[in-house]
């Protein structure tokens, strides 16, 4: 209490010292700060800033449409402010230092008002290059350049679609990548790998360009110049541990007793077990009905659809884009069931039910028509960006070497690219 009193006093003093005779309208409050810790979910994170029970539910409700809680990660920052009666008046959630999702209690309506605060950030491009030494791998060599594990993995995953490193990597092979980094006060908060290249003595030469259609789109991926997507297209599993309770095909229905076609596979698991998206895609269904219970369906880039039924919780809305392995909900016993399990189904690219156990890959999309033209436009800008960067690095040197450079000379002619 004494501390709060002192804060108030110092406010008044600092304003009167400048001869300003008003006190700004502001909640005088106590602030609690915390970070999401390893193994913590949303509720535990909220508890660490003293938000529990009904307040926690209100906060989650107010932020539900703005924050993707399925992507909560270690280090995310939370801040809660309480008034003198210890009532929560403001809460903020930051997934990086430049952005804040804020909810504030409206003193008139008692409702929670949302606003998004964003610091100014800027994007900077840089080229990284390297050469494999005897006994080192691409992975190790890039990590030695102080790149983050996620950037290194992205580059390696793209090149793995073309290069069998185990057999084809040789010392002296060269690699190159163009990174586009979003910075806030010299801190990198987001990185896009725009370009990846490998020049292998035995493996051959490969280039890949990042294409971004719109935020979250399944088309966002690395492509060859011809429009071939370089993505690892194997399906993930919907659960971490798989115990099949009932397979695909004709069976006696466990509730009705009738012989009927079972269009999917039932996996035994307890209520609350996380359910994962088996591949990237767009959520086309997120509903409840008396038979399927809570149901999520995801349309994949090859036109096939995966189905997840009887969920306890659904974490995704219709229209959301998901990545492979994203948690989309939890196992439950909703709908017409005898016990908790996940019913996992699959429709093929023509919309016919198929045995999900026979679906191993999502066919890699090849861009055509407008999409291919769009990709090629983006490839042109990526190449332009790289030339700009190389000019910046090499031009002073070139100009020093060629004193009689004609005025109208095109500096590009002197570049090897
Ligand atoms: Zn089933």
Oligomeric state of the chains? Answer: single chain
What is the gyration radius calculated from CA atoms?
Answer: 27 Å
Strand content: 25-35%
Q: Helix/strand-derived class?
A: alpha+beta
**What is the makeup of the main sheet?**
10 strands, antiparallel
Contiguous helical run count: 7
What is the tally of beta strands?
Answer: 22
Overall form = globular
Mean pLDDT: 84
Q: Give unreliable regions as ranges.
A: 1-25, 402-417
Distance between the first and last residues' Cα: 67 Å
* Run of helices and strands: HEHHEEEEEHHHEEEEEEEEEEEEEEEEH
Ligands bound, unique: zinc ion
Helical fraction: 10-25%
Structure description:
This protein is α+β, with helices and mostly antiparallel strands and 417 residues long. The chain contains seven helices and 22 strands. The strands form four sheets. Strands 11, 14, 15, 16, 17, 18, 19, 20, 21 and 22 form a ten-stranded antiparallel β-sheet that branches. It has a five-stranded antiparallel β-sheet with strand order 1-2-3-4-5, covered by helices on one side. It has a five-stranded antiparallel β-sheet with strand order 6-7-8-9-10, with helices on both faces. The longest helix is centred in the C-terminal third of the chain and has 33 residues. The N terminus and C terminus are likely disordered. It binds zinc ion (ZN). Zinc ion binds next to loops.
Secondary-structure map with pairings?
Blueprint: H1 2-17, E1 30-35, H2 42-47, H3 53-63, E2 77-82, E3 88-96, E4 99-105, E5 112-118, E6 122-131, H4 138-144, H5 149-160, H6 165-168, E7 174-184, E8 187-200, E9 204-211, E10 221-223, E11 244-246, E12 249-252, E13 259-262, E14 265-268, E15 274-276, E16 281-289, E17 293-299, E18 305-314, E19 321-322, E20 327-331, E21 341-347, E22 353-354, H7 369-401
Antiparallel strand pairs: 1-2, 2-3, 3-4, 4-5, 6-7, 7-8, 8-9, 9-10, 11-14, 12-13, 14-21, 15-20, 16-17, 16-19, 17-18, 18-20, 18-21, 21-22
Helix pairs in contact: 4-5
Zinc ion is lined by residues 262, 264, 266, 343.
